Amino acid sequence: MSITFGRFAMAAGLSAALVLGWGCEAPPRTTRLQAADLEVAAGTVAEQLAASPFMSSRGADAPPILLALEPATNASSDRLSRVDRLGIVTRVAYTPAMQDLFRARNVGMRVYQQDEGTIRRYSMGDPKIMAALRAGEQPTHLLRAEVRSLTRQAGEGSREPSTLRADTYLIAYSIVELRTGRVEWTGDYDFKRYAKGLTVD
Amino acid sequence: MMGNLQKSLAGLWSILAIAGALVASGCSAYQPDAGVVALVAGDEFGRARERVALGAKPQPSDRDFILNRMKLLTLAVADGVPEASEAYADRLYDMLRSQGLNVDKTISTFIAGESATRVYKGEPYEQALAYSYVSIFDATQGEWGNARASADDSLFLLRDFSDALHKSAARDSDTADDRTSPSSQVREREALIRASGNRSSGADSLGVDYRAVASDFEFGYVMKAIAARSLGENEELRDAVNTLKQVAPALASLADTIATGNYNTVLVCTYGTPPRKTGSGMDNAIAIYPPTTMSDANALLVTAGGRTSQWPVVTDVNRMAADVRWNNLEDMRLAKSYIGTGLVVGGAAVAVSSNDRGAQLAGLGAALAGLAMKATAAVDTRHNETFPQRFYVALLSLPEGDVPLSVQIEDKPETQVSLPMVQGPRATAPRGTIALHYVRLPMRQVAWAGASGVKYANDATGDLAQPTLPYILGGRCVRVPTPERMAAYYAAGLPRDVTLDQLFDVYREEGIMIVGVSDIGEPQRHVLEGGNWIYTPQTASVGFVRLLCADHPAYIARSAAAQELISRIASGGAKPVSSNTAAPTREERVTTAAR
Known about the structure:
Low-confidence stretches of chain A: 16-23
Number of strands of chain B: 14
Shape of chain A: elongated
Distance between the termini of chain B: 94 Å
Strand order of the largest sheet of chain B: 8-9-3-12
Largest sheet of chain A: 6 strands, mixed
Structural class of chain A: alpha/beta
Largest interface: A-B, 32 and 37 residues
Radius of gyration of chain B: 29 Å
Structural class of chain B: alpha+beta
Radius of gyration of chain A: 24 Å
Low-confidence stretches of chain B: 200-204, 578-595
Number of helices of chain A: 6
Largest sheet of chain B: 4 strands, mixed
Strand content of chain A: 25-35%
Helix content of chain A: 25-40%
Strand content of chain B: 5-15%
Oligomer: heterodimer
Number of helices of chain B: 23
């Protein structure tokens, strides 16, 4: 009887430890943008673009347009590498579904000369499709993005150390017609990240 | 009875063993690398970077990972090598933005000592400086969005203990001028511990009342304001400038110029070495920060186009380090805990006064444990000895093209440096574009201080007036070899049957790595200084002047391939009769180098 109870107690203890282990997941330590955030944002915005009047109004015989991809502008509280800023726009444009759609709607795509090396080095898409603007080639449209954020932390005058930080990010995309400066399409995605722990520690 | 005594003795031996282990593990205090400090004083950042990199472990789990990246970033930015700075900035920023890295280390720190358990993240003032270096690096690259983000991160809230300190009268006896003196620092910190009294302190609280107050980090506001202006964020610019005027009224004129002045170039200059973090007080348990470069208010003199302008000290790191608002107070929390244990005195008292043998042994054990803890109570003195002591910011309006600048600190002739190739924004750049350059001034006279022109062909300023061979073949070219470059090499005497691929093979045989060609880690010491890297520093950096505007000894080839090619060049291009061709003598190589 005592052996049975001992085994039962051990099993219960192990179960409790496992449950506690699962339940006590460490809180996030940083509010920085993660690759997964950008992936989800790009996927969502690509769907918005595909369903937009800008794309649906174009047929296969529509006049061709050449879209230049510009690295995103960083107006956020996070530091974004040039690779990330380029990826924010290339991830929207370079998906198999979007490539099919672009071909069907007579939309070409180019990156700027200074970004071609990054595209190749980080395998950010087929170099033939993601080629740089050739000499004399003028884009007609520009795909751009801007990353903004709002940070919340305990403010001045508080008497307790703040251990919680929350950042709400907004990535706003637009396609601009370069000749007129008219905004032809906009899309956006927002999300929140929080982190726990003393900043200085 | 005997059984109890044996148990007590066994327990005592265990305590002694633990105490011995703790003493052994916790007693090694951090020593700043004097060799690196000496190299920094002479602006020898390539050698300094190499020296720091040798001891820097690549694993982020290493407790000194952040400390070493702070040093490497500081030195790479000073050397003007963005290819090295970028990786350090990325990793450092990521770690600095991680909150609570030491959150679970309170108990282990108490037992084994701070330096043996805690991940180094730096004192708050060091974190602010590290963010600033990330910001400076991004600004030199024209990445003002990123520069603004890091500048903003450097302006975190501080804890103000002034009420508690005034109650204990710790500040009343000190003038503002002597607050950086070691004795004043010790007084203020001991007063804080007294102020905490017998109040129970939590895991991360000293137990002293404080208010969260805005940062007084002047350089952070300056960088934030310039970045905001560059981005056209006028409201943010106004806020940053107004706060700068509040925290540093002496910089009001600079603040106004940042907001409304006519400038297109920012020159950030730094000087000196930072205060040395040292243990003081009982058991060296309290951290103080005695200066290694004394503070003064000498202005920065910048001469461009025959005109000299003066710029004030923006931030004095000695002042920041001495201020308890810029310390993490971990040392004081621990000091309070150690004092509070009373293990040594209490244990010894029991051992002496009790008649019971078991109680005597227990008391002795407690006293020994207390002694072990005292041994590990010494403060964690790790700090970044490569940071500067002060920051200057000069705002200039430069014409397009290369402009020679001369920079020095008033009354410190040894800090004089000439920068022959500073470039303002290009005429084709959008209106309002601001270029930022960073110069770390030498602390002693350097041979290249008066450099007036470029002496080696490089990828920033191009070829020299006459075609020249690659440096490793006796010439003065340290450019990345390309098909176009080969024509210049042939004109300089390279045999015409040597192809670009064969030339790359010679570089490989020599173990030389070329930035942009050999993507292997971060570039270290340049081949011109005896290293094995080829890159071109930013033209307005001291790295550019030191490497490319001064003469260096001729290269001594190590590989048979290079030696054979040098022989062929010396003999006018004839192929060697056999593969056993003798390597040229040192004299022959020097003659070749002079071509």
